[in-house]
Design brief:
Shape: elongated
Number of strands: 0
Distance between the termini: 68 Å
Strand content: under 5%
Radius of gyration: 19 Å
Order of helices and strands: HHH
Helix content: 55-70%
């Protein structure tokens, strides 16, 4: 029986890992800037923006596990934005 030795040396991050981290940080910063502009929007626009952001985050997380986080984020963002825009004030009233 042959045993494979365990690698103990540290490896440098690959270029793809660095690009992903940079892209994730950039997307997070853009999301914060976009959400800070909500004060001039009406309630329907705010729901569309927040629904799109939450959908993109959820879709990206699911896509990351299944192989294509970009596709998951795009589909989730579009679905979340549509759901947020199509809801009525009476549908989301919290008392």
């Amino acid at each position: 029986m042959s045993m494979t030795p365990i690698r103990t040396e540290k490896t440098e991050p690959t270029r793809g890992t660095a690009v992903r981290r940079t892209l994730a940080g950039t997307m997070a910063a853009l999301a914060l800037v976009a959400l800070s502009a909500c004060s001039s929007m009406n309630k329907q626009e705010q729901r569309a923006l927040s629904g799109g952001a939450m959908g993109a985050a959820a879709g990206g997380a699911i896509g990351l596990m299944t192989g294509s986080w970009v596709t998951g984020a795009v589909i989730g963002g579009a679905g979340g934005a549509a759901a947020g825009a199509l809801t009525d004030d009476d549908d989301v009233k919290v008392d």
